[in-house]
């Protein structure tokens, strides 16, 4: 049976980075994945350009039942460290918006960089590998694979969450955690579009593709200021993806469709200057025409001139456009979600090393654990930071 110092399960962002660093520190590392290619999610990410980190990474941008857990790793391996590595590999990048860093060229460059780092660490890679069983004794961990068995003193689970089963996602990491007695918190889809109840959806069919700046607020008070996109299934766009991680079934979200305009003031000024101008044309100066037309067809915008608009109608219009309350039907689920909320309870792990407190030699890194970042490069940064912390411990 072939023996290694460490086996890493999952050749995604966290697993590749951890294997590479541990290998470079002198460990004999085996990296396993069930897929044909490493880093499949990286290739899909950021519209093919991989939003690999964010300039404004901070612990407050992560959801977890144990919010302090992520602090140590994020402080020890920061966005600047990763930006430095990307620079060393000659990968050109740019900031798109809100500190989000993307490759100028292609996400393939990040995968190639991680492959090169693994090669530098002499990491043995086995793709298309099914792990049939994992057992532990005083020799360490023995893995039964499809074909043969392998053994290592240390085992790292980097198998990610449940989002996008088409890209190899599986509950493997949660099952291993439970097998070794670690608590797994309930999981749900995060950074995911909302679906809407049929009547509302039918009313808004004509809006599919319309995008507007918005401020969106969840019932717990969390607020995001980003674009909202109407789709043929419901609502999407960065504002909705962000707030979906803070939304629970049955709850409402409140949407301000005119965050950059004091609507009451604007209407009063326009009324002064052009009293005979139609309300519809006035609103179309601030909102997409298709949205205004749709709201008028739904009877939400009266077919009147500014002079005819009475103060009660104006108030309810301002309320509708700045505090639109929507109760989503649900989310599009793991099929399109970018991340999985919940997972391995971080109270079970040491935040410095990612090792299970009660199972020596067993580590969890990346998305498999209950640490989920905002949209915008935060999730990859968690993969890099947690992988780095774990790799230091493997090398000790
Ligand atoms: C479409 C999409 C776009 C995204 N864009 C961004 C972005 O631009 N920026 C950002 O920060 N985040 C983005 N994310 C989130 C980010 O991809 C993840 O948070 C990150 O990949 C998590 O890294 P990981 O290594 O923990 O897991 P993953 O990258 O998911 O890797 C897990 C690996 O484990 C393997 N695996 C699973 N089960 C088994 C098993 N039983 N046996 C063997 N191997 C197994 C999988 O095949 C996979 O290769 C995006 C996600 C998606 C789905």
Automatic annotation (TrEMBL):
Position of the signal peptide: none
RsdA/BaiN/AoA(So)-like Rossmann fold-like domain boundaries: 5-392
Cofactor(s) of this protein: FAD
Q: Which UniProt keywords apply?
A: FAD, Flavoprotein
Q: Name one Pfam family in it.
A: HI0933_like_1st
Q: Tell me the ranges covered by the RsdA/BaiN/AoA(So)-like insert domain, including all copies.
A: 188-339
Q: Does the keyword Oxidoreductase apply?
A: no
- Which InterPro entries does the protein's record reference? BaiN-like (IPR004792), BaiN-like_dom_sf (IPR023166), FAD/NAD-bd_sf (IPR036188), RsdA/BaiN/AoA(So)-like_dom (IPR055178), RsdA/BaiN/AoA(So)_Rossmann (IPR057661)
Q: Which domain of life is it from?
A: Bacteria
Q: Which NCBIfam families match?
A: aminoacetone oxidase family FAD-binding enzyme
Task: Provide the protein name.
Answer: Flavoprotein, HI0933 family
Q: Which organism is it from?
A: Kosakonia oryziphila
């Amino acid at each position: 049976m072939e023996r290694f110092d460490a086996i890493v399960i999952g050749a995604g962002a966290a697993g590749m980075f951890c294997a590479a660093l541990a290998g470079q520190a002198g460990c004999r590392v085996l990296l396993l994945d069930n897929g044909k290619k490493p880093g499949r999610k990286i290739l899909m990410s950021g519209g093919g350009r991989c939003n690999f980190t964010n300039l404004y990474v901070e612990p407050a941008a992560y959801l977890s039942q144990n919010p302090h857990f992520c602090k140590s790793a994020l402080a020890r391996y920061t966005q600047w460290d990763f930006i430095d590595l990307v620079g060393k590999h000659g990968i050109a990048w740019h900031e798109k918006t809100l500190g989000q860093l993307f490759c100028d060229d292609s996400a393939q460059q990040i995968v190639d960089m991680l492959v090169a780092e693994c090669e530098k660490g002499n990491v043995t890679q086995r793709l298309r590998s099914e792990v049939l069983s994992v057992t532990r004794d005083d020799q360490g961990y023995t893995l039964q694979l499809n074909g043969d068995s392998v053994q290592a003193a240390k085992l790292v689970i980097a198998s990610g969450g449940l989002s996008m089963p088409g890209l190899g996602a599986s509950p493997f990491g949660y099952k291993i955690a439970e097998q070794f007695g670690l608590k797994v918190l309930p999981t749900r889809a995060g950074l995911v579009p909302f679906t809407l109840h049929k009547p509302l959806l039918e009313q808004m069919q004509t809006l599919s593709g319309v995008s507007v700046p918005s401020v969106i607020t969840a019932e717990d008070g969390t607020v995001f200021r980003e674009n909202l996109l109407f789709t043929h299934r419901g609502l999407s766009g960065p504002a909705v993806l962000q707030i979906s991680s803070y939304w629970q079934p049955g709850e409402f979200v409140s949407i301000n469709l005119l965050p950059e305009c004091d609507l009451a003031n604007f209407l009063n000024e326009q009324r002064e200057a052009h009293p005979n101008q139609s309300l519809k044309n006035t609103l179309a100066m601030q909102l997409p025409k298709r949205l205004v037309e749709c709201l008028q067809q739904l009877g939400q915008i009266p077919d009147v001139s500014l002079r005819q608009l009475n103060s009660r109608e104006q108030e309810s219009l301002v309320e509708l456009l700045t505090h639109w309350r929507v109760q989503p039907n649900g989310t599009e689920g793991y099929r399109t979600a970018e991340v999985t909320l919940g997972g391995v309870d971080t109270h079970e792990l040491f935040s410095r090393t990612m090792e299970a407190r009660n199972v020596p030699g067993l580590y969890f890194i990346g998305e498999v654990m209950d640490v989920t970042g905002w949209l915008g490069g935060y999730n990859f940064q968690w993969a890099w930071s947690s992988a780095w912390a774990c790799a230091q411990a493997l090398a000790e």
